[in-house]
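[agent] plan:
  1. take the single chain provided in the ticket
  2. run structure prediction with default settings
  3. attach structure tokens to the ticket
  4. add a short note for the reviewer (M.T.)
[agent] executing step 1
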Amino acid sequence: MAWVNSQSIRRRTAIAFSPANYGSDLGQWLDGQDTNTLYADDAKTTLADNAVQIAVIDDKSSYGLDAVQTSALARPTRNDTGVNGHCAPMYDGGDFMSTAAPITGLSQFEIWCVGKTSDTLNSYQILYETYVGAVVSCVSFSRQPDNTSIASSIGSGGQISTSALSTEGSSSTLHVYRHVTNTVVSSACCVLTEDGTETGTQTMDANLLSSTMDANAMYLGGRFTTQYPITGTVAEFIIIRRLLSAGEATELLAYLKTKWSIA
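[agent] step 2 finished; step 3 output follows
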């Protein structure tokens, strides 16, 4: 009987990781590196070439929650070497995109965002934001005016912020951000995940506890009022409709860091 190396068989048959592996738990996947998802027109008939404005970023999840900008004056631009030599949508400080409500009805979810802000004017900039219920309640990730810290919010004005990463002040640094929300318990956990280190927890609004999220649009690159736009990129944006295990989070972080050449 011939000897079979079962370990080598397992290696050959292993399935490469992709966010698509989450199946229906993948609530939204906007992949700025995938040029087949970047369209120059609202009808998605023409792909955007390099240096052309992007009207639609096709959602790679099964939910069809495309990011859209109907105004030519506020569209990001495809840049084939925009982020660490990779293709990404670039926002010029006046651009933003919006999607249909991606976290409607959820009480537990995670948002993963690969992005950076290149503005050196120490301005407040929002990578993404959606409002929950009242206008003052939101889920967001933003860069603070001191240009050396980030903050995440959920609920009414409450924030977690950190200045622990000195590299956050670098205009050339791309980061992976993780935002974990669990309304079943009385806290939301937000993580800055260069190395997977948790930055803190916060108490949520009482009216959000044990509740689900309202049907509001998600905005990328700024606030829905067009305030606080970024100069930089939201290169990849992923929503997972449940909480990840520690092993799954490590796997997704490694995938994103490798894909976007983040050291």
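[agent] step 4 note for reviewer: The two ends are 47 Å apart (CA to CA).
[agent] ticket updated
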